[in-house]
Amino acid sequence: MVTAPLPAPATLPTPPAVAALAQQARRVITPCGGGELVWHVWGEHTGAGADADALPLVLLHGGSGSWTHWVRSIGALVHAGRTVWAPDLPGFGDSALPPRGADADAVVEPLAQGLRQLFGQQPCDLVGFSFGGLAAGLLLAAHPRLARQLVLVGAPAMGVVPSRQFVLKAWRHLEAPKQLAAHRYNLAALMLQDAALIDEDGGLALGLHVANVLRDRMPRRRLAHTDALARALPQVPCPVHAIYGATDALYRQWIAALQGAYEQATPDFRGLVLIEQAGHWVQFERPEAFHAALLQALDAGAR
């Protein structure tokens, strides 16, 4: 039996703003299985004016993503005086597959090794979006001294949703124009409350999404649909903050249950912020409100 080849994947040009931001970054490599874990660094503040309390700020992206999930956050965080480290997680973007496994638990040891190599005994402030939030919780449950505090953004696996709240369309078998239609549908179904944002700014959201899903080599992830994060958080002793879009498609009407779930699971829970008129990709959809909430959380946790 001869299997027909899949159609060529639809691609879009790299948005100029993203290309410029990538060029401003310093690229750092740590080991990842038989390959490399790629880190991107912005805003390395040194000298007499540097803030000694401003620990490295590490941003972990979501599933089927890369550092570009933070494209609207990096400049604001650097402007606030932070040095931002945004890796491409193992199995995504420019990073190699993890040495074993294909879910959030598989990225824990490469991340732990990388953080120790980069920062030694110094902790970081850790922010995880979606899949990256689940990975961050598992990371600190296993290695609690790696972070001073944890901010979870749109994190799944809190055990409050009885069934999956969205359905995504398959796209790899489609011809290019239909692939783009499926990508638009998936962005609206999961990532963004306002579908008009998909094609704004020269199609920034669509371009980032297409580039990222093409480099996703861990497509059969399942832990996000369990209570894995809620089970990990009791082993996380540092301050934990949570920020979600109020209409996050992972939770929908169940989002009101998150406050209690976090309070029950987390030894040092500092609060949940729901950002109105924002879906799952809250830092992209409502960047100003998100940055205000994030910086306030980071400041409170540092004190």
Helix residue percentage: 25-40%
> What low-confidence regions span 5 or more consecutive residues with pLDDT below 50?
none
Count the domains. 1
**Briefly, what CATH class?**
Alpha Beta
Question: Could you name the CATH topology?
Answer: Rossmann fold
Q: Which sequence of SSEs, written as H and E, runs from N to C?
A: HEEEHEHEHEHHHEHEHH
Task: Quote the distance from N terminus to C terminus.
Answer: 65 Å
Spatial order of strands in the largest sheet: 1-2-4-3-5-6-7-8
- What name goes with the CATH superfamily? Alpha/Beta hydrolase fold, catalytic domain
Task: Work out the number of β strands.
Answer: 8
Strand composition percent: 15-25%
Shape: globular
Structural class designation? alpha/beta
Q: Largest sheet at a glance?
A: 8 strands, mixed
Overview of the molecule:
The protein has 303 residues and is an alpha/beta fold. The protein contains ten helices and eight strands. Strands 1-2-4-3-5-6-7-8 form an eight-stranded mixed sheet, sandwiched between helices. Helix 3 packs across helix 4 and helix 5 packs across helix 6. The termini are far apart. 46% of the residues are buried.
Short description:
The chain has helices at 16-24, 74-79, 108-119, 131-142, 176-191, 200-213, 228-232, 258-265, 282-285, 287-302, and strands at residues 26-32, 35-42, 57-60, 84-87, 124-129, 147-153, 240-245, 269-275. It has 303 residues and is an alpha/beta fold. This is Alpha/beta hydrolase.
Task: Write out key terms for the chains shown.
303 residues; alpha/beta; 10 helices; globular
